[in-house]
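Reading is simple: each integer encodes one residue's backbone shape. The lines below illustrate:
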Amino acid sequence: MIKYIINILVLSIVLYNPLWCKNTKSKIAEEGNTTRKVHIEYSINVMTESMSNISGGIKKGTAYNGLVQSGMDISIGSSLFRGSFLLLSGDNPSDLIGDGLGASNMHGYNSLRLYEIWYERRLLHDKLNVRIGSLLADAEFSVNDLGGLFINSAFGWPAYISGNTVNTGPAFFVTAPGVRIRYTIDDQSNLQAGIYDGDPFDNLEGDGKITAHGNHWKISKGQGIFSIGEYGRKFKKSDGGNVKLGFWNYSNWNTEGYYPKNITGLYFSSEVFMSSLLQYKIFGVFFRAGVSISNHEDFYSSTVDGGFLFNNLFPFLKNDVLGFGLAFGKIAGGRHYYLPENDQYIPMDYEMAIESSLRFQIYPWLEAQPDIQFIFHPGGGSIVEDATVTSIRFIISD
């Protein structure tokens, strides 16, 4: 397993070369009688992770993962082009833990793959923004920035969406063809909506080989569509936080297929940034909740996640962030484990993860993040023993 870490670190040294990996550059483009500024921005981020199940779960053990994400943004006037790649390598820690929420948010199908590729246009004096291409919904909808500290997937693309739609929907690590429209109402509020291919994997079973390189796009009636809409409002204070209300839906009109027919959910989220607390350390709180209003095709009937963060608590660390979070998913009624040896059905009830994570800076380009998670009812029931999971992650960024 160590070979995954070595391969990722060697590649990161090659990619992270200051001679040709400048952060940004600009030039002036002459077009007829007009002059427009072209702004090009590069980004390379590298993460390595060692995650160990030290008690409970399916079995004890350690999984190693590596990820490299490289992207380029080209801005020309009111237009923006984005293209990016992912390199994923490693094993799934959930194979050791047996959890459903996803203890690691960086594991994916081992591959070098095309990731985001889209075109964005600003209209109506920048009040209207339209993006079209191969997109990620989890980058723009139901996002709590404070939750981004945590390693468990439930704090990212929430389980009230990922666990209830087909193959998690358009989210890490597979994009989907779609269009997103955002309208800025005023300085504090906006509306946005997106429509995407209903199955990013183009395979109901989630076979990663089909989309192994990120260049397989299939839109069909049989796969259905995934749609999402959201109203967001910032608090009056510029850094005070926000509140968001949204809905999502998966619809399929192919009566002869095996895909779900219709699943709908609602969600609420908010995060608050506060200062002048705890010896003037910045303090942040976040909360999200979502419910399914479908009859029988959902997996989670409701989920919540939330937590709080402290910045610069430790004088011996640089730019440290300490967070405590909790994620809870209630399994929809009627779902059971089947034990063939006893010919017995065991009802599923919930899964919960409690996480504590600390990120700090070692060098301007290198961060470390030790983390511990306590996972209760892995997989949604009492069949698998509660697990304790520790991990260490290193982040290289430009």
